[in-house]
Every structure is written in C-alpha cells, then in structure tokens.
Amino acid sequence: MSENFELPEGWAITNLENVVDILDNRRIPINSKEREKRKGDIPYYGATGRVGWIDDFIFNEELLLLGEDGAPFLDKSKNIAYVISGKSWVNNHAHVLRAIKGLTSNCFIKHFLNFFDFTDFVSGTTRLKLNQSSMRQIPIKLPPLAEQKRIVAKVEALLARVNAARERLGQVAVILKRFRQAVLAAACSGRLTEDWREENQIEWEIVPLENILIKKGIFDGPFGSNLKTSDYVNLGVRVIRLENIGQLKFNNEKKVFITFKKYEGLKKHTVYEGDVIFSSFISDFTRVCILPQLEEITIAKADCFCIRPNASLITNKFLSIQLSSQVVHDKLLQDIHGATRPRVNISQLKKLEIALPLINEQHEIVRRVEALFHLAERIEARVQAAQAHANQLSQSILAKAFRGELVPTEAELARQEGRAYEPAKVLLERIQAERERKNHP
C-alpha cells in the first residue's frame, strides 16, 4: 500500500496524523453511576457510538470518532469510525479526530478507516486496542480534494442503497417469526387441517397434559435433576440444560458433563431419544424440542422438564408443536411465578390443557407444519446469504473507491477538460506550509 505505483495518478500516501487534528487530550470519561446523576440531552459517545446522555458538552462541532478499544476492528460487517456533529461528550474509548480543513473531510477519512485493515495496528487478545501511537501511523491514501468530494458523494449514495437493502432483509426475520407463530396457532386451533377434518367428520378432545403421559413409576410426568456448575466436568454423562433448548430445535453445541459416579444417584433422570424436553423458564416464547439421538448417556437438569407422551394417544412431534405455540405460552403466563426469571412448575404443566385430535390428524398436522417451517428455513438461508453479500458489497464499494475506480480521477478529468489540477502531494505540502506559517508567524 505504501508503494507509489499502487496509487492512482494524482494521489499521495501519508500517515493519518498528517491529515487530522487529534483531540484525544480533551476527552473526559465519566462512569455510568456518575452519568445517572447528570442526565441531560447531550449525547455521550464511546467506541462504537452513543452510549448515553449527559448534561454538558466538551465539543460542539463535526468530528470523526474512531474506536480506541472495544471496537470491532477486525469485523468488516461493522463500522469502527463514525462522524458526529453538534454538542457532544466523548469518553476515553474513542479517539477524537478532526479532518484538516482544505485537505480532506471527516467523511472521507471515515470511509477510508472503515475499509482499512487494522490487523497490524491493534494489540490485545480478548479486547483489541488501537493506541494513539499506532493510530497516528495509519497510512491514508489521499486523492486530490475535488476527487475526494466525488468519492464521498458516490460512496454514500451506494452505501445508502446497500443499507436500505440490509434494513429490508432485517425485517424478514420478524416476518418469519410471525409466520411460524401463525402456523403453530393454526395447527393448534385446528384451522391448519380444517379441510382434512371435514372429510373425516372428527372432533378434537381437550385433556390435561397429565392424562396423556406415560404412567410408569418415576416417569409419571416431568422430572429433572438439580445440579450446580461445580458438578460439571469435561467428559462423562451429558447434561441437558436450558442452552440446549430452542423453539422446536435442539442446540447440540453447548455441552456439559457430570462424572459417572455423580450419575449413579441421578439415573432416574436419564433422558432418551424422542423425549420432549421443555424449559421451565418462560420468556417471549416457550422453549421445547424433541431430544435427538446423542452419543452419550444423558440426563436433564431440573429446569428442563422431560415429558414422555403416551404414543397411542399423542405423538411427541404434535405435543412439541402444541407446547411451543403462543396459546400455550399465554396460558402458562397467566399462572406463572418468579419476577426476574418467570417459570412454571410441574403441577402447572400437568394441568395444562392440550388439544387432542386423533393420531391420523396429528400426523397430518405435523406434516403440514414441517413443510411450512422448511419453507421458512429456506427463506432464512437465502436472507442470510443476501445479508452476507450486502456486507461484502459495502467493502467492495469502498475497495473500488480507494483504488481510484469508483469515480473518474481528477487527473483524467483535467486532461479531458484541458486544465491543470493540484495533485494530493502538492496539496499536502501547501496545507502543511500554511499551518506552519499560522502556528509560527
């Protein structure tokens, strides 16, 4: 990047410290407790954006903020530099920069920094840091001033379109969530198979959950084991926890184990392939899934109820569909306990009323639900691919901009129009000389 032959005609390369004023010494950090006492309408900024409000300001102008620590320096899907304007307060987690007037602009430097590879300029492992000495040495590709302005205008027009597409893609997740809930609601109310039922002239029963469970000693209904974090080891008997239960999905990534010795006293809590696992904690949806085949002997923790339905009355798939529906969620919320982490108990769960179609209709409901959910999953996959493409597109736009390929160069336009222009190297020297004369009259 530092070689001149890589630069478009008329461009120059210089360090960041030569194109901006660095105002870090004016920053004043204030902790959250102190800010609580000083609430106001002045934005308080940190590494990646506004982090609060305060009653006074340090700056009152357009500035460029660049993360010092805690910013996503190596994640090209996120910005690490942003422009602010008006009254503001900035803490020590963001460098405060101001583009040198007549030489460049905050917006141009912002786009360059959001494109720049910080790998060799940041330090740290868990929390990356860009110290000021490293920041000063960041090499900036600088076009002539008029060309900078054209680049900024073109980049912002294109990025606006990309961001608009991102927003529309982001809305799809909400739509799909509503779609799934609508499918579950239709399945559990009978509307999804209304045509099937009309042909077969069959009505549904409503029964408490405990009436459709296997009644076999200790497996009479939900159960679970009480375990602590200190009980976990690296290998042994697998423990199913809340982290493993999604909405009709089992998350097999987060694994914890207990020793076989510990398991000897917990064998009655063993769970098997096909068991319905239900989370006792209720959030904005009920978490329930069917346990898949696992390699290890497995038990369920106390906050994960294991439900074993009577297969002659109800299928595990149909039961899990019902338990994940909004109807069941709302029923459980009516009689829930716990303020910070609302949860249901075994007695509540046993008394929960369940709709009970005949087995044939249950199979048909499951078939239709799975087909519709599969459609939603395909749409999700396409949306994720489109989002990844949008992220790549933003970087592609910036890459073209800083290769001099996005807009005509000032050198090209000057030749076409038969006029002279000021190359960036000359511009740098002129502005530097003017600043020196001003500082040392």
Q: How many individual domains?
A: 3
What do the pLDDT scores average to?
Answer: 89
> In terms of structural class, how would the helical and strand content be classed?
alpha+beta
Q: What percent of residues are in strands?
A: 15-25%
CATH architecture of the largest domain: Alpha-Beta Complex
Provide a count of the helices.
12
* Main sheet summary: 4 strands, antiparallel
Radius of gyration: 31 Å
- Shape, principal axes of CA atoms: elongated
Weakly predicted, low-confidence segments: 1-5, 216-222
Tally the beta strands.
Answer: 19
Task: Summarize this structure briefly.
The protein has helices at residues 32-37, 106-115, 132-136, 145-189, 194-200, 260-263, 316-323, 326-334, 346-351, 359-401, 410-417, 424-439, and strands at residues 12-15, 20-22, 42-45, 50-54, 59-60, 63-67, 81-84, 87-90, 94-99, 139-142, 205-208, 237-240, 256-258, 270-271, 276-279, 288-290, 298-300, 304-307, 353-356. It is of the alpha+beta class and 441 residues long.
Verbal overview:
The protein has helices at 32-37, 106-115, 132-136, 145-189, 194-200, 260-263, 316-323, 326-334, 346-351, 359-401, 410-417, 424-439, and strands at residues 12-15, 20-22, 42-45, 50-54, 59-60, 63-67, 81-84, 87-90, 94-99, 139-142, 205-208, 237-240, 256-258, 270-271, 276-279, 288-290, 298-300, 304-307, 353-356. It is built from twelve helices and 19 strands. The protein has three domains: 4-143, Adenine-n6-DNA-methyltransferase TaqI, Chain A, domain 2 (Alpha-Beta Complex), CATH 3.90.220; 145-204 and 358-408; 206-356, DNA methylase specificity domains (Adenine-n6-DNA-methyltransferase TaqI, Chain A, domain 2). A hairpin with a 4-residue loop joins strand 3 and strand 4 (50-54). The chain is an alpha+beta fold and 441 residues long. Helix 4 (145-189) packs antiparallel against helix 10 (359-401).
